[in-house]
């Protein structure tokens, strides 16, 4: 685990000491956009872009889900890093489920960042969207990549009709995302990486206050923004699907499991069972990554065998209205 400083790799853990034991996530370093405009620097083209992900990573997972559901697999290439993140950061390998770098045969993801910006300073994160034409990184911010995949490639997508950020629901989606991001998606990390008791408890409380709020909301409506699936659901899904296997124990978010919530449990199963989505969930990579790559949290690196998850049982949510769309 480390970062690039002036283009050179440094092996160092997150600095929580200068923030009173709090984990503070860094902003992404590359924030360009693929846009369907003739004068855009990055225009949508089949085969031009390549997505680097970790199947363990919830941020990468949301981009991967959009690539899948929009039908962009033939349009945007994919590499999957080894789940273990060691002293040189994310690495390529041929372990099961990994897909090595086909473009340059790289050993480490940080080498891609050095190619894009030889003097780059910042973290090397997944997902990373690469442009083979200009040989640079378009973006390493998953929230932006999700939006690009949702609409910029519609002329090439198998499912241009699927829209996960519909105009009429944007204000609602943005409001839900805001709370879910801080208190749940990033909230579990704030609990897990805290190095002070009060910082951990603060994050823990926010995680469960927000899960309680979400559970109640999902008792009265099928999805987060109403009767159709939107990006707000996929953004929450990636944290929920890791929760009982990883965040509950490894990150000490153990007031209750998702499977204990009356509505969140079925909601998680329903999203998991949307055609194509289960293919994007690799529980082995998820567990291998977290339990082995954070020695300060789990020094033995032992990966728990359980828990048994029941993601394939019926969601039982048909009593709540849903729009007639296939995903
Ligand atoms: N804001 C980024 C965060 C991505 C991120 O932090 N990814 C993690 C993996 S889950 C990572 O690559 N961490 C490596 C590091 O922080 O050095 C996004 O959403 O794309």
TrEMBL record:
Q: Which residues bind glutathione?
A: 90, 141-142
Q: Where is this region: Disordered?
A: 308-327
Q: Where is the GST C-terminal domain?
A: 166-290
Q: Which residues form the active site?
A: 57, 189
Q: Which InterPro entries match?
A: Glutathione-S-Trfase_C-like, Glutathione-S-Trfase_C_sf, Glutathione_S-Trfase, Glutathione_S-Trfase_N, GST_Omega-like_C, GST_Omega/GSH, Thioredoxin-like_sf
Q: Name one GO cellular component term.
A: cytoplasm
- Positions bearing the site annotation: Lowers pKa of active site Cys: 247, 290
What CDD domains does the annotation carry?
GST_C_Omega_like (cd03190)
Keywords attached to this Swiss-Prot or TrEMBL record, sorted alphabetically, are: Transferase
**Composition bias, Basic and acidic residues:** 315-327
Q: Which GO terms describe its molecular function?
A: glutathione transferase activity
What Pfam families does the record tag this protein with? GST_C_2 (PF13410), GST_N_2 (PF13409)
Q: Where is the signal peptide?
A: none
Alphabetical list of PANTHER family matching this protein: GLUTATHIONE S-TRANSFERASE OMEGA-LIKE 1-RELATED, GLUTATHIONYL-HYDROQUINONE REDUCTASE
Q: What is this protein called?
A: Glutathione S-transferase
- Recorded source organism is Salinisphaera hydrothermalis (strain C41B8)
